[in-house]
Design brief:
Blueprint: E1 11-17, E2 21-28, E3 33-40, E4 52-53, H1 55-70, E5 78-85, E6 89-93, E7 111-112, H2 120-128, H3 146-156, H4 158-162, E8 165-170, H5 171-180, E9 185-186, H6 187-193, H7 204-209, H8 214-217, E10 227-228, H9 240-246, E11 253-254, E12 258-259, H10 260-268, E13 288-293, E14 297-303, E15 313-317, E16 325-331, H11 335-343, H12 348-357, H13 362-373, H14 409-420, E17 426-430, H15 437-447, E18 451-454, H16 459-472, H17 478-485, E19 488-492, H18 499-524
Parallel strand pairs: 1-5, 5-11, 5-12, 9-10, 13-17, 17-18
Antiparallel strand pairs: 1-2, 2-3, 4-7, 6-7, 6-8, 13-14, 14-16, 15-16, 18-19
Amino acid sequence: MHSKKQTPEKYYVGIDVGSASVRAALVDGFGTVIAHAEQPIQIWEPQAEHYEQSSADIWAACCSVTKKVVSGVDASHIRGVGFDATCSLVVVDKQFQPLAVNCEGQNYRNVIMWMDHRAVSQVERINATQHRVLSYVGGVMSVEMQPPKLLWIKENLQESCWEKAGHFFDLPDFLSWKATGVTARSLCTVVCKWTYTSDKGWDDSFWKMIGLEDLVEDKYEKIGNRILSPGESVGKGLTPEAAKDLGLPEGIAVAASLIDAHAGGLGVIGADVKGHNLPCENQPITSRVAMICGTSSCHMGVSETPIFVPGVWGPYFSAMVPGLWLNEGGQSATGKLIDHVVRGHVAFPELQAKAAASAHSIYTYLNSHLDLIKKSLPVGFLTVDLHVWPDFHGNRSPLTDLTLKGMLGTRHILETMQAAGHHINTLFLCGGLSKNPLFVQMHADITGKPVVLSKEVEAVLVGAAILGACASGDFASIQEAMAKMGKVGRVVQPNHEHKRFYDKKYEVFLKLVEHQREYRSIMDSF
């Protein structure tokens, strides 16, 4: 017989700002997504390699989707809010009004997107310093990090932007400020994208060496001098204004935020795997890698001690899972590149028409077409004589070379991490591409490792909700919340019969790396 007094359900809101849209989810204490909403946000590309957004447009979308997911729910049961976002750079003046990051002076375009590559010259000069902080980003800083973008602003927009700027926020930190009025930064953002270290803090000598000594002079007020761990409660929770904007109760807990890929890692990597016959069962979490595959791909591996992996970002202490060191590999263009190749093909209109006629998405239709033409062979064997180098946007990991264009990337990243000291036996996938069964199976076959898919497709949103759950005090730690709210869905095992074929493909791939560099060397001598 049920007791008449039942414990009220507790809910958490996760808000995820991706490259092209904002999503929100209402999630319960078991990690189940109760409601979900999405809204597109605008991207401007005023010139090649320049990508900009508007913080006002982003916040408006956050408010719109949040109101939708909490509609009809007893607000007193909503316990906390967590934000994650792309690691884009937001610039505001001393009154927190948007400042233009462009030569046109369009103030509403005050965000330099993560994928913006305008600061190539600046990052080359930063890397030439060989400063010790670079050892924490695989030895070479990426153009996608914030110091080169800040240097670009100072050199190109000194009067209109640099001198007027009051705060430079990573987008996840802008969102927690907007919600709470507190300018504290997340350890995740400042460690992963700004060169902060958890033991020594900011390194004055680095900023002075690269010509940004102004930031040191005001004691880092503009880039953050109060740092919180992800999931820690920020200030006094939602301000009255933010509560009204979001349709939530004033004062509910707001968590220190995460970069979007790290939220995805949080949503999957800590799941309880008992009964799934996986090699990581009864093994520490350090035997797992979370792979977040969307517009770009990120490979998140954790360790109990710092591991320095050439060409792979980190080690970053407590940047994703508190108390553990994080290494982050990645590919700058995966989903975006696949989309580009498919949509740019001469047969794309025909594909669109056939997919529409069959009432399937273009990728479901393409997968079924591949099944038809492969005959009795595995799909991957269709590429026996086709070897493609697909890094159109430069190589992020493990070669960290903007000029290289192409990769059989995940295996290369994992092997580089393992050679440096990681012990990885299981992949945990989430993000848009994890919905494609062919993409998932190929990752299992090429790496030779089982792939675990989250029960909730929207694992990034579950990760953001885990932050809110932790900030609310309902869980004693991030680790406890991860184990309770992260759930295993499907497990995809590698087909070991195809190992020899993929070993040969990988051999060719490594030759492609070698040859690309040889070709560049030949042309550089012209």
